[in-house]
Write a structure and sequence with these properties.
Elements (H helix, E strand, L loop, with lengths): L3 E6 L8 H12 L3 E7 L13 E6 L6 H12 L6 H19 L9 E6 H15 L3 E4 L14 H13 L2 E4 L2 H11 L6 E3 L19 H6 L8 E6 L8 H8 L6 E6 L9 H9 L4 E4 L9 H5 L3 E4 L6 H4 L6 H8 L4 E4 L2 H10 L2 E4 L5 H13 L1 H16 L1 H4 L1 H7 L9
Parallel strand pairs: 1-2, 1-4, 2-3, 4-5, 5-6, 6-7, 8-9, 8-11, 9-10, 11-12, 12-13
Helix pairs in contact: 4-5, 8-9, 12-15
Amino acid sequence: MAKTCCLFFYEGYISVSPTIISLSKSFASKGYIVVIFATKTQYYEFKPDSGQVKTVYFSKGHNIPLINFFYKLFYRIKLGSLVPVIDLIVFGFQVASYIVRNYKLVSPQTSVDIGVDTNGSILALINHYIFNKKFIYLSLEIYPFSYFRKFSKILKLFECLAYRQAETIIVQDQDRFDSLCKYNNFQPTTVFYLPNSPSSLDKSSENVSNNNYFRDKFNLREDKFSCLLVQAGMIEDRVFSKELAYAFNYIDNEYVLIYHEREKRDIHDPYIEELQKLNSKNLFLSLDPLPIEEINRVFDSVTIGLAFYRNVDNNFSQISKASGKLAYYLKSGKPLLVNNLESLAKLVLRYKIGVVIDNPCDPIEIEAAIKKILNKYDFYSENAKICFATEFDFANKVNPLLSHISNWSNITES
């Protein structure tokens, strides 16, 4: 009977989560059959390139007509905080049904469970109680108790219990671990730090074309537009999208600002239209995401990568090792512009991989920073690769975790 890794990922955005993809491939390389239980989302479905990894997507309650009818009723009578609880139960029943039908594949005698964040860790906890299985708590997001409303606070209570019962904790860095301990009112003794990043060993998404994705997409000739500054990922206020669009409207035309979304957006989306009004000169909007198999086409086409995050909470302020786009920039050897957020600034200044911006609205400061990087581009680019190899290469960071799990008594082949 083969070893199995069951990964409970309720949120479901596998294709934009380097941690989930890298972790599943790492387990597969050690002979595990990896089963990822997830919900269907608006993102591309992750299609594993290995028979060792299987993704199983289930519908959320909102996408099941009868259940969605009751959800609307709950919102109408001000019981909306019950919806997240019921949605987890719906997901749990679907997972349980799959496990019953495929019991040999996920036999508790040979498998390790990984529960992601609140909902995933609760399902892993339930499996722990039923089958007496050890499990791992994997943190991608960190939220305090105040984030949960009324009835949904019960989810946080069960998450705290799962956090205490987990054999091992995976989180991005020490700062986020400290916040996680505070929010769950417990400090585990066994923790492994894994950045939200790709692996140097992963060649599946390497760009085999010499073409520049953004120059081709927007017809940006190099003699006219010399520098492509790209902020990949979400387009919204929490990443200073409006401020940067405004600033670049007053920056030399040869410096182009490109927003590349991680989910499909409509050109008539009110927020998108507002950005176009702020900057119709040198802002380009890439609103059709690429599948993960082609993601390197995006980062190979960047001149300078932007990673700006607003300090709204610890989930955003402690972002350096949790930012997937930052890791991809560095892997591709791209210098960075970041805002003056402590976790980002410390990394950029330590490795000299770019410039820290104090005011994302200031075109003079931003243009000066761009010129500083371009004048020593090879220096910053080489440092970016060194930073990735030292701090972000998942292939190296995951080995201590895999060695630790190999000592678990129930993980044996038979």
